[in-house]
């Protein structure tokens, strides 16, 4: 286990699994933590890749009492981990809200980034706005957070169930729900910030390979939004996962790994 101080004495948790292949940084979604990648990271490491996992602020084993949990700041944390480990041309892979963090981190890294992967990524926008008719509204996000404030357990259980297009086993549902319940309440502000984050310019200007792995039945980030995101950058390629919701790496693991490892070695 490793920790990195990023705000005064407050620390984030990360794991560094060494390998001779392309480095890949895995960034979890809102409320989750590094353990969500437990069916992905070992396969990447076995394939020889250098794998880094990060618990975002207020999530998992990172500290819970940060003052700043904005998307931009979380992205800066990822850059700090990349610099701390001296990673060479890492591919940044973000799931859900982690997709926004990954996009901002890749933009900050610039030519030092090796690629970007958006796994059901909430990027470049999570909510609809002028010129971007995809997603819900800030009021929808406020409604979810109000529900969490009143009844955190039931709200997060509902969110966990909605991740999947097909109902998962009770064990998988409990696993995802348990991760959500570990997030500190300040982490709610990260979702609130996501609702107003716009990374269209950053995504469009990236001069690196970009891969979007997206379920057609995603209940959080509409597939049409992923299509629009891919259209913003000529280096982007979208892979659709039929019958999958918000987590293709859990719902169609073998194909997900085939697409991801192919991208990493290309």
TrEMBL record:
Q: Name one GO cellular component term.
A: membrane
Where does the record place the AB hydrolase-1 domain?
Answer: 23-252
Record field: transmembrane: none
List each coiled-coil range: none
InterPro entries xref list: AB_hydrolase_1, AB_hydrolase_fold, AB_hydrolase_sf
**Which residues belong to the signal peptide in this entry?**
none
Ordered alphabetically, the record's keywords are:
Hydrolase
Q: Which GO terms describe its molecular function?
A: hydrolase activity
**Protein name from the UniProt record:** Alpha/beta hydrolase
């Amino acid at each position: 286990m490793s920790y990195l101080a990023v705000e005064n004495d407050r620390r984030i948790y990360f794991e560094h699994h060494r390998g001779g292949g392309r480095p890949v940084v895995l960034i979890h979604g809102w409320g989750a933590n590094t353990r969500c990648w437990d069916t992905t990271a070992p396969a990447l490491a076995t394939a020889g890749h250098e794998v880094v996992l990060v618990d975002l602020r207020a999530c998992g084993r990172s500290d819970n009492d940060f003052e700043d949990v904005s998307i931009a700041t979380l992205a800066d944390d990822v850059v700090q981990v990349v610099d701390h480990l001296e990673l060479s041309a890492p591919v940044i892979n973000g799931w859900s809200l982690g997709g926004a963090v990954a996009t901002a981190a890749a933009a900050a890294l610039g030519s030092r980034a090796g690629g970007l992967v958006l796994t059901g990524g909430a990027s470049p926008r999570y909510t609809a706005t002028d010129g971007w008719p995809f997603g819900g509204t800030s009021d929808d996000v406020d409604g979810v957070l109000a529900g969490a404030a009143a009844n955190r357990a039931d709200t997060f259980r509902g969110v966990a169930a909605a991740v999947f297009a097909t109902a998962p086993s009770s064990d998988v549902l409990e696993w995802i729900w348990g991760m959500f319940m570990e997030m500190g309440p300040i982490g709610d502000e990260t979702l609130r910030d996501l609702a107003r984050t716009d990374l269209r310019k950053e995504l469009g200007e990236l001069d690196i390979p970009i891969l979007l792995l997206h379920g057609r039945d995603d209940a959080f980030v509409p597939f049409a939004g992923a299509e629009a995101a891919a259209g913003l950058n000529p280096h982007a390629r979208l892979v659709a996962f039929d019958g999958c919701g918000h987590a293709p790496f859990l719902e169609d693991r073998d194909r997900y790994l085939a697409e991801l490892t192919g991208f990493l070695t290309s």
